[in-house]
């Protein structure tokens, strides 16, 4: 019996220390609250208005991600988005980034409905790019995890359009 309780105790100790180590590791990294899991290295703006201002000021397109915490499709897309180095790098360097868990008053951001997840681009002239769409005709701005390469192409398209149009 003594042996049994010692092994149980050491297991408990291991569990506690690994949890502690994880808590410390989390603490150190101070995750950015605005990232909400979409990418901690990315600088996120807080509001749509701030996003528009920054886009105009920096001459970078604004990328708006509409999502909800309890949406499994959003969670799946978020994971793929956060794990993709090319997306993270472009988002960090070439875009003003915003992820929203509520609708804005700008009806241009829901041209075909208020579904999630949806990703839209606004160029520095503050034009919502209704011409940069995903692969689904019933939800024009929806992306699924397997559409990440397509999203990368659309990010590049958003960058190309500013160069050619402004």
TrEMBL record:
<dbReference type="InterPro" id="IPR051099">
    <property type="entry name" value="AGR/TXD"/>
</dbReference>
<dbReference type="GO" id="GO:0005783">
    <property type="term" value="C:endoplasmic reticulum"/>
</dbReference>
<protein>
    <submittedName>
        <fullName>AGR3 protein</fullName>
    </submittedName>
</protein>
<comment type="similarity">
    <text>Belongs to the AGR family.</text>
</comment>
<dbReference type="Pfam" id="PF13899">
    <property type="entry name" value="Thioredoxin_7"/>
</dbReference>
<dbReference type="GO" id="GO:0002162">
    <property type="term" value="F:dystroglycan binding"/>
</dbReference>
<dbReference type="InterPro" id="IPR036249">
    <property type="entry name" value="Thioredoxin-like_sf"/>
</dbReference>
<feature type="signal peptide">
    <location>
        <begin position="1"/>
        <end position="23"/>
    </location>
</feature>
<keyword id="KW-0732">Signal</keyword>
